[in-house]
């Protein structure tokens, strides 16, 4: 008799259903797992044997064969410990149940039979729902992320015995998570703490409204990092769909501190980060910082201190909003729709009284190549604040006030672009730019003059129009006026004046 148990494995951030088939026959005692299992899967034999014995059951003597179907897909990780153990107990007739096919089992077993949390539980539940499986036996530490899927019935367990009792008791109710805390009141910092810098704040507001890439540059100590760290406080609240996407990535990465992502990610990798750390990859093709910042902000402080090849690796993800990582062992695709925020000093000495020559300055700034600069929408100079601004008692805009105008602009963009499965102006392609970036006569003349004078690339041209469209949305205008276009052009002065 062959017992069939529903299990799963991972491929990137996508779950993959696995049918765990167990057959026990007469013969010399042996325990074989077939179906291209990785090292952790092969080692599950020892964990499962010890867990069964220490849970009060007998480990069957005979020829045990476990087949992981489909047999041509490689299975990695410890996700299959629990379904293998349940299958062996059913095949040896130590437990009896007639509803195993209604459940999907995931979990790593300790030698004592306890269930440990696993990476990638959420993507597996999402895939299971698409395969019409409604009930899930999961480790208790994975319950919050799994319960994000509204259609799923989640039964958290802390041991092998607990899992067996759950499938045999129809009175146990599935776990339900509370409401996602997706408001920005949790932040202890606020934009009102930034003294002066009114033009910079305006530029940041425009960037946040359209999800545009942004660079802050200027002398040290002027507040570049301070401003960047406050950008999450003005971004729109994360939606249920966005929360689900982010939690899938962090679930695979193994970094879910509270079980789910309830605010937009803000990632700040150190400038010594490698290309793999930033983009993703490695032996297990794990997501990098650009994917961990999905639906949020990737902040590169001291941007010019990053290695040039690391910065250049950002070019394709910034354009495609996803990254495909390939190795001999396989390939996987991760989403990376983030808002890039960079900050750097304009010379290597970083002194108030600069001692660098023009050659040294130019050499330092050349780490930002032309193609990478083309992918950045706004360049904001951050200068020293005058003393009268520091001592001023004038009230400035709070984060919640800036956020209101950004929410309004984002709503306009969503209504305009939802039929194209995008939500912000920065995601528009050329046909959409032509359709929705309608210019007034005066604005049309200005952009034509600028295009010819500076020999703009098509990408730079469309980015100017996208930023202009966002500025018009902040003012709730259907068409782009001269003032909108001139403001957008001001945000690109860095390219002409400094490089």
UniProtKB/TrEMBL annotation:
Domain Magnesium chelatase ChlI-like catalytic as annotated: residue spans: 190-388
All residue ranges annotated as the Mg chelatase-related protein C-terminal domain in the record: 397-492
Top-level taxon in the UniProt lineage: Bacteria
NCBIfam families found in the cross-reference section: YifB family Mg chelatase-like AAA ATPase
Protein name according to UniProt: YifB family Mg chelatase-like AAA ATPase
Organism of origin: Clostridium mobile
Taxon lineage: Bacteria, Bacillati, Bacillota, Clostridia, Eubacteriales
